[in-house]
Amino acid sequence: MEFVYIIRFGEIWIKGKNRRFFEKALEQNIRRTLKRAGRNARLESERGRLYVLESSETPGETPALLSRIPGIVSVAVGVRCEKSVKSLAENGLALMQTMGVVPVSFKVESKRADKTFPIPSPQLSREVAEYLLTHGLDVPVDVHHPEMVFGVEIQQQGAYAFCRTLRGAGGLPTGVSGKVAVLLSGGIDSPVAGYRMQKRGATVEPVYFHGFPFTSDMVKDKVARLAEKLAFYQESMTLHIVNFTPVLTALKQHCPERFTIIVMRRFMIRIAAEIAKKSGCRALVTGDNLGQVASQTLDNLECVTDVSPMMILRPLLSFDKFDIIEQARKIGTYEISIEPHEDCCALFVPKFPEIYGKLEEARGAETEMDIDGLVAECTAMVEQVNF
Ligand code: ATP
Ligand code: MG
Question: What atom in ligand 1 is closest to the CA of residue 287?
Answer without folding.
Answer: 18
